[in-house]
């Protein structure tokens, strides 16, 4: 009985060691978000952060019109939520690094070479997708809504509904810009052959327009601004995947020699 318990001790010790390290990594990631959140609250302040987020909508409203808050504490809570989300986006590279540092010891050498660039590129692409949505898509969408709204309707969007809308659009376009990473992972891990991905171009184009029609407002410009990047990014993923496959083959040949 005692020998059995002793044989399990190393496994239990290793398990608790991993749990301790995971907790440490999560605490570091959480603290990084919290510290950045506090700094943003000090400067430029939660109100200023929300004003920047609301700028695309405010710029398309008729003169004298503004946004409203229907809840009692909504004018306080919504800017706090926006500031916290901005803090998370700023801290995202460090958060993902903590995730990488936790799983890295269990990866093979070739997996480490693949994962770190993917973590970095996926972070950059997600942020680029959000920026594209903010600077390009929002102005087109809000201009379209303002243009087709009946003259009998007074435009006064609720700030909480606005936050929900922009966060949904940020996530959708952030995920859209992850398409090259998805393609590279599928091809690099051998889940799908590169030739099969090339043959699927037609389906991807049709699917891109279907997805764009579902998740974007019902104006043609918004749908094109999502569908076209999807198709282009898919092609980028194919090009990079081909380059990585050639590079991996050259590395394998040099190792054999």
Mean pLDDT: 86
Strand content: under 5%
| Major sheet attributes | none
Assembly state:
single chain
* Helix residue percentage: over 70%
Poorly predicted sequence stretches spanning 5 or more consecutive residues: 1-5
Structural class from helices and strands? mainly alpha
Shape: flat
List keywords for this structure.
single chain; 257 residues; mainly alpha
How would you summarize this macromolecular structure in one to three sentences?
This protein has 257 residues and is mainly alpha-helical.
How would you describe this structure to a colleague?
- The chain is mainly α and 257 residues long.
- It is 82% helix and 0% strand.
- It is built from 9 helices and no strands.
- It has helices at residues 2-42, 46-60, 74-103, 109-148, 159-176, 179-188, 194-199, 201-215, 220-256.
- α2 (46-60) packs across α3 and α8 (201-215) crosses α9.
- The protein is flat, with a radius of gyration of 24 Å.
- The relative contact order is 0.09.
Structural topology:
Layout: H1 2-42, H2 46-60, H3 74-103, H4 109-148, H5 159-176, H6 179-188, H7 194-199, H8 201-215, H9 220-256
Helix pairs in contact: 1-3, 2-3, 2-4, 3-4, 4-5, 6-9, 8-9
């Amino acid at each position: 009985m005692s020998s059995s318990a002793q044989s399990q001790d190393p496994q239990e010790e290793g398990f608790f060691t991993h749990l301790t390290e995971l907790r440490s990594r999560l605490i570091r990631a959480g603290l990084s978000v919290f510290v950045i959140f506090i700094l943003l609250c000090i400067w430029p302040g939660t109100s200023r952060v929300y004003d920047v987020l609301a700028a695309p909508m405010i710029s398309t409203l008729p003169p004298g019109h503004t946004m409203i808050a229907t809840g009692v504490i909504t004018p306080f809570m919504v800017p706090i939520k926006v500031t916290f989300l901005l803090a998370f986006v700023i801290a995202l590279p460090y958060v993902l690094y903590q995730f990488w540092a936790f799983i890295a010891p269990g990866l093979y050498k070739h997996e480490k070479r693949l994962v770190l660039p993917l973590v970095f590129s996926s972070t950059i692409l997600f942020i680029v997708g959000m920026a594209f949505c903010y600077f390009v898509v929002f102005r087109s969408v809000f201009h379209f809504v303002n243009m087709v709204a009946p003259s009998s309707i007074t435009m006064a969007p609720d700030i909480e509904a606005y936050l929900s809308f922009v966060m949904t659009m940020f996530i959708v376009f952030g995920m859209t810009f992850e398409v090259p990473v998805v393609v590279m992972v599928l091809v690099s891990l051998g889940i799908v052959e590169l030739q099969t991905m090339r043959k699927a171009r037609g389906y991807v184009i049709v699917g891109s327009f279907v997805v764009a029609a579902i998740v974007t407002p019902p104006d043609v410009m918004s749908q094109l601004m999502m569908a076209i990047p999807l198709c282009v990014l898919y092609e980028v993923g194919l090009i990079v995947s081909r380059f990585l496959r050639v590079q991996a083959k050259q590395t394998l040949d040099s190792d054999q020699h």
